[in-house]
Design brief:
Largest sheet of chain A: none
Number of strands of chain B: 18
Radius of gyration of chain A: 25 Å
Strand content of chain B: 25-35%
Radius of gyration of chain B: 24 Å
Low-confidence stretches of chain B: none
Helix content of chain A: over 70%
Distance between the termini of chain B: 33 Å
Helix content of chain B: 25-40%
Shape of chain B: globular
Structural class of chain B: alpha+beta
Oligomer: heterodimer
Largest sheet of chain B: 6 strands, mixed
Order of helices and strands of chain B: EEEHEEEHHHEHEHEEHHEHEEEEEEE
Order of helices and strands of chain A: HHHHHHHHHHHHHHHHHHHHHH
Largest interface: A-B, 22 and 31 residues
Mean pLDDT of chain B: 89
Number of strands of chain A: 0
Mean pLDDT of chain A: 83
């Protein structure tokens, strides 16, 4: 053991804290869930309809997202057209958007009283809505909209690694464009496609907002869990949660296996010529689908924006004749009742950021620097929540912390303010741990050794050398945690009380009151907040890269 | 005695990296540890610096047992192979770091840092980000960063291996000059024997974690204690009893000995007949020509110092070789 790997007082405290966190907030809720779910077996065998629905929905989402992702990745790499970078950025937007914002956007766009529906009705003088945006078709469209950017990102980065010389070689051997794509390019993309498929499948299984708002009578696993909980059947909810988790874990381990099997494909020796260096024809035709699709990306947001600036309740009337007003925004920032969800969301997200930094960075430090025994196990345990849907985490918290236990210092947490930021922390701790570990691994250990040999103690070295150098990756992780938390809906909807409403819960309750203006305004604020953070983080991170 | 290394052994798991290392260093001495890569020399340096703990043995710095002291309590300075400059600070910040940690007042830090930067000729780059410096400049900053703290011991971990050949010679002179000027006791780890010979007062030759020989550069070069040292430091050719007799006609080499001949001691001359060797490869490098020869199935290396009057050879030519070296080394 190197002397720098010895644990000091602070090291022991951090280790103890992390073990307490894992035991109390990851393992104990899971254990409680499993225990509770066993009770359900004795009196009822739950129907498998919701399970099948969830799996079918996820498969359709994966296939649809994959096709869209491959198509756009291909035209962005092999074609040239106007506003390419701008359109690419637009196409990525849904990935950062809180799911509920997208869902509400689509609701205002395509539902019976949605903008597009009304416009069509007006043009063709129809008495009723020409189509009904509901159930399966609505959920599938929203899912593909929300999740295809993952495919686009994964495939794009894989295409960047494809050697352009290989493509030229294929052409010079007589293969046409289609043959080259199918036989040469596509096989090199398979690891990325599999990776994205697994992630999208899991995200789709865990998705709650779209099935919740548009599902109607069609039940999916996540909504089934929610309704079971609302009906007070904790055992059934737990049982379904355990099934949902098992599917997630199964797919995560599949991802691990595939990654190992296909990792050789991406290795190449010597210098590769990037595809971007191939001379591309300026192609006007491909602009059309790209423009159409980016318009599709923007439309739900545009609908939200439009509804947020017309008077409340005008949805019932003819809202094309209303005048514009900022009253919906003014109300949020002037009335304390309307401002509270906003400040709650901010507070809870910031607390979650702080807690994930303490746990994630602390764990990364003792794993990579102190190399403590069982470090690998700690890393694995801290990544468990990655595979657990938010609904399940919330349910685990409810079952575990409704009575006083050691881990909550014998205070019942359910119904308090703190349970929500704690749930956000658990959901996001894998992100922070991974980005901290990546940051620390990228840091040359001889820098810390140099600092020590120049006379600096452990704390000084951390403050002056380690911390400034891993700041970019921790900062990046923090922004992700904040974005994920500030619009979180899935677990909040199960955990909130009247005084701890968040923006997303407020959007939902305003919707139920048909206060579309308020809901839209909250949605736009949330959207702008997230987009500003994404934009800002891109700018600062580019600068901070040493 | 600035440094005493007493019976230091180190093993990682079942592999012994260092076995029973002993040596002592006097004040102001420049001491090199030289050996092939993987011989344990860097581990030895890291143990002296406190970055590794030995499995057994003691490190005494100024007579005080420092074996279990952390690096920051030892007052040793390391120049790392990759320089390990702090990328979040400029040149001044890097050099000032050790003084800042020691809580010197700002004006003293300013003065001392500027003095040292003057010494390494980098005053004009004081505010430059270290990532913008050339390799040679980075090397000088890492040196300045250490000597400004006036450590008891200066530890070099192959500091020149990341520089190209011309810069390496320049940096070598620089290190020698600074070390003379400041007189800091230094331990210098390298795999390059010529670097060690050029810089050191004394050399320790290490192989597979075991000391082969300790002595002055002349000592280890001219009186190698075993075959490894003769081969590693002098690139010597070895001849057993039979081949000594066959090639050179030397008949007093015992069965338990090798005749050990430096490449420069292998004398090559042109001849029409009685040739005993063939030239298999010629590398002309300017001042010297390196020849690879073959004689009675043995490969022999020879070096000729070129002058304008030198004879020139060609590949495949048959020649006569004799030797001017009469050193004999016992087979262990």
């Amino acid at each position: 053991m190197k002397p720098s790997e010895r644990l000091n007082g602070a090291g022991y405290m951090i280790t103890a804290l992390i073990i307490f966190f894992i035991a109390g907030y990851i393992l104990f809720p899971l254990y409680s869930l499993v225990k509770e779910s066993i009770a359900a077996l004795s009196y009822t065998f739950p129907s498998t309809v919701s399970l099948i629905n969830s799996v079918v929905l996820s498969l359709i989402t994966v296939i649809g997202g994959c096709i869209a992702g491959i198509y756009f990745a291909y035209i962005f790499h092999f074609r040239n057209f106007a506003f390419k970078n701008f359109i690419y950025t637009l196409l990525i937007v849904p990935i950062a958007m809180p799911p509920l914002v997208g869902v509400v956007g689509f609701l205002f766009l395509l539902s019976d009283s949605g903008l597009v529906t009304k416009i069509i009705q007006k043009i063709f003088q129809l008495q009723y809505a020409p189509f009904s945006f509901d159930g399966w078709s609505a959920i599938i469209i929203i899912h593909i909209y929300s999740f295809y950017p993952l495919f686009l990102l994964f495939i794009s980065s894989a295409l960047k690694k494809v050697d352009a010389n290989v493509i030229d070689a294929s052409h010079s051997l007589g293969a046409g464009k289609y043959m080259t794509f199918r036989r040469v390019i596509l096989p090199q993309l398979i690891p990325s496609i599999i990776g994205a498929s697994v992630l999208v499948f899991m995200a789709s299984m865990a998705s709650f907002s779209a099935p919740f708002i548009f599902g109607g009578n069609t039940r999916f696993l996540t909504t089934e869990i929610y309704y079971a909980k609302i009906n007070g059947d904790n055992s059934l909810a737990s049982f379904l949660s355990v099934i949902l988790c098992m599917i997630s874990v199964l797919f995560l381990s599949l991802l691990g296996i595939f990654r190992k099997r296909y990792s050789y494909i991406q290795r190449s020796k010597g210098t590769t010529r990037q595809i971007s260096f191939i001379r591309k024809k300026r192609d006007k035709l491909n602009v059309v689908p790209a423009f159409l699709f980016s318009a599709l990306i923007v439309l739900p947001i545009a609908a939200l924006a439009y509804l947020s600036v017309i008077p409340e309740g005008s949805l019932m009337r003819d809202y094309f004749k209303e005048s514009f007003t900022l009253s919906n925004y003014i109300r949020i920032f002037s009335s304390s009742e309307f401002f509270e969800p906003f400040s709650n969301s901010l507070k809870m997200s910031l607390i979650a950021v702080a807690l994930t930094i303490i746990i994630g960075l602390g764990a990364a430090f003792i794993i990579t620097r102190k190399k403590i025994r069982g470090g690998n196990l700690i890393e694995k345990l801290l990544s468990i929540p990655y595979g657990i849907p938010g609904t399940v985490i919330a349910l685990g918290f409810i079952i575990s912390f409704s009575s006083p236990v050691l881990f909550t210092f014998f205070v019942p947490l359910v119904g308090t303010f703190w349970i929500i930021p704690l749930a956000y922390t658990v959901r996001n701790v894998p992100i922070m741990t991974q980005s901290s570990i990546a940051g620390l691994n990228a840091l040359d250990p001889s820098l810390e050794e140099a600092s020590a040999s120049l006379g600096a103690g452990g704390a000084m070295t951390f403050r002056k050398i380690t911390a400034p150098l891993i700041y970019p990756s921790v900062f990046h992780g923090s922004l992700l945690v904040f974005i994920n938390s500030v619009g979180e809906f899935v677990s909040t909807i199960l955990l909130y009380t009247f005084s701890t409403k968040t923006i997303s819960v407020e959007i939902y309750s305003q919707l139920r009151l048909y206060n579309t203006g308020a809901a839209a305004a909250y949605g736009i604020i949330l959207f702008l907040m997230v987009m500003m953070i994404v934009y800002y983080s891109r700018k600062t991170l580019d600068k901070a890269a040493f | 005695m600035i440094l005493s290394v007493e019976n230091i052994s180190k093993s990682f798991g079942v592999t012994d990296v260092l076995t029973e290392i002993n040596f002592e260093l006097n004040k102001g001495e420049f001491f090199s540890v030289v050996g092939p890569s993987g011989c344990g020399k860097t581990t030895l340096l890291r143990i002296i610096a406190g970055l590794e703990v030995p499995s057994s043995g003691k490190i005494l710095i100024e007579g005080i047992d420092s074996t279990n002291f952390p690096p920051q309590k030892r007052n040793t300075g390391i120049v790392f192979q990759n320089y390990a400059l702090f990328p979040n600070m400029d040149v001044f910040g890097n050099v000032a770091y050790g003084l800042m940690v020691r809580k010197f007042p700002a004006d003293v830090i300013e003065r001392k840092v500027n003095e040292v930067l003057e010494k390494v000729r980098l005053s004009h780059k004081s505010k430059t980000n270290v990532t913008m410096l050339s390799g040679g400049e980075q090397q000088r900053v890492s040196l300045a960063r250490v000597i400004v703290t006036e450590p008891l011991l200066l530890l070099f971990d192959e500091p020149l291996s990341n520089l190209d050949y011309a810069l390496r010679l320049e940096a070598r002179n620089e290190i020698k000059r600074l070390q003379k000027e400041i007189g800091i006791t230094s331990v210098y780890v390298t795999h390059d024997q010529s670097e060690a010979l050029a810089l050191s007062d004394r050399i320790l030759v290490l192989n597979k974690g075991v000391i082969q020989q300790t002595g002055t550069p002349q000592d280890v070069y001219f009186n190698p204690s075993n075959l490894f040292v003769a081969g590693f430091i002098g690139h010597s050719n070895f001849f057993d009893r039979k081949s000594s007799l066959q090639i050179f006609g030397i008949d007093d080499v015992n069965d338990d000995e090798f005749l050990c001949v430096f490449p420069e001691e292998v004398i090559v001359s042109k001849s029409e007949n009685n040739c005993n060797a063939t030239i298999t490869d010629i590398q002309f490098t300017g001042a010297i020509t390196e020849l690879m020869l073959e004689s009675y199935g043995k490969e022999i290396k020879s070096i000729i110092h070129n002058t304008v009057r030198s004879e020139f050879f060609r590949e495949g030519e048959k020649i006569i070789i004799t030797c001017s070296g009469k050193r004999r080394i016992a087979i262990k």
